[in-house]
Amino acid sequence: AAKGAGRGKHCFYEPAMHSEASDRQLLENDLRQALERGELSVCYQPIVRAVGEDVAGFEALVRWTHASRGAISPAKFIPLAEECGMIGKIGEWVLKTALAEAARWPDRVRIAVNLSPIQFNNPGIVGVIDRLLGESGVRPGRLELEITEGVFLAEGDATDETFARLKNLGVRLALDDFGTGYSSLGYLKKAPFDKIKIDQSFVRGAASPSSRNSAIIRAIVTLAESLNMDTVAEGVETHDDLQLIRDLGCSQIQGYIFGKPGDAEIAGQLARAKSVEAEGFQCIREPR
Ligand code: C2E
Ligand code: MG
Ligand code: MG
Ligand code: MG
Question: Among 79, 219, 95, 102, which Cα is nearest to 146's?
Fold first, then answer.
């Protein structure tokens, strides 16, 4: 809940926590140099249309391969980057890298990039996106920015204006991880989202008979349809869940069943292949 509130906060550590705190400090120092050392990479996970199974686009997901510790999850280092002031630089690099890749794909294939609330609330963000779009030559309508409700919780209320300026650029906006956190319906009213990404916690195992998740997914899909938004079910891993998600009318699907995040080469092949069969696309590999 304290996401983004970390800077300048005083914490009291138990003696046993000292090592954890200094480990964090070490990791933070390494993260500061990760970009110039070439330790960061971007991988791409297909987002597939529920009907027809063609590839609607890819989500860019950043990876950090630490020199001695190996792969470190973005769930761990993105919050660190947010707290130590690195997220702007890293986020801009991801955006630039992902747009350069998307420029090589067919025009119908979109690229989705995650935007941290801190990036979003930086007044320069619209200019940065405009410039990077121009440099890449990617049509703005192909770029989808994934935003969490964190943007509404962070300080600074430039959000309404930022949303309007982004829509003016012609990019698409997706509300990520929907259903977690506070998920006030007011957020849907507040911002011109084109898409809702239903969080994995509702999707995984939704097909089991005792699950209440399918009722929740159904409600989200109905809501999204009446607001003219697409829906993506995240984290679809099994055929049972895939079947259910289709029956519930989600428009797009993202999950291991259609492909794990893969390197740029694999993504390029898949982008041109157009359609993808569940579990039919086997050459899945993460970038090194
Ligand atoms: P997210 O934006 O919700 O991304 C989806 C996450 O779910 C990814 O994890 C993806 O690999 C994972 N996933 C997709 N399908 C499945 C599935 O079927 N099963 C399972 N178990 N997992 C699945 P990843 O890459 O570890 O990223 C975690 C989070 O880190 C992302 O969640 C996003 O919040 C953040 N993140 C990743 N890259 C970036 C970035 O470039 N910028 C920012 N600001 N955040 C990023
Ligand atoms: Mg995302
Ligand atoms: Mg998500
Ligand atoms: Mg997430």
Answer: 95
pLDDT tens digits for range 19-66: 777 888 999 999 999 999 999 999 999 999 999 889 999 999 999 999
Q: Is 74 helix (H, G, I), strand (E, B) or coil?
A: helix
Closest CA to 47 of 272, 285, 256, 279: 256
Residue with the larger pLDDT of the pair 127 and 210: 127
**What's the CA gap between 64 and 74, in Å, rounded?**
7
Which protein residue has the closest C-alpha to ligand 1 atom 3?
177
- Closest residue by Cα to residue 222 from 177, 185, 262, 272: 185
Q: Print burial letters for 213-242: b (CB count within 10 Å at least 16), e (below 16).
A: bbebbbebbeebeeeebbbbbbbbebeebb
95 lines ligand 1 (CB under 6 A): no
pLDDT digits (tens, 9 = 90+) for 90-132: 999 999 999 999 999 999 999 999 999 999 999 899 999 999 9
Question: Contact at 8 Å (CB) between 103 and 136?
Answer: yes
Rounded to two decimals, the pTM is: 0.91
Q: How far does the centroid of ligand 2 lie from the alpha carbon of residue 159, in Å?
A: 19
Q: Which two tokens stand for residue 198?
A: 């239903």
CA of 150 to the centre of ligand 4 (A): 11
Percent above pLDDT 70 for the chain? 89
Is there an atom of ligand 1 within 6 Å of 61 CB? yes
Angle at the Cα of 131 from the Cα atoms of 84 and 136, rounded to 5 degrees: 105
